[in-house]
Amino acid sequence: MNDLIMLKHGLWVVVADGEKALFLENHGDVQHPDFRVVQEMEQENPPTRQQGAERPGRYSDGPTAHKSAFGETDWHRLGKERFADEVAERLYKNAHRGAFDELVLVAPPQVLGEMRKKLHKEVADRIRAEIAKTLTNRPVWDIGEILRA
Question: Taking Cα atoms as reference points, which of 10, 9, 12 lies closest to residue 129?
Answer without folding.
Answer: 12
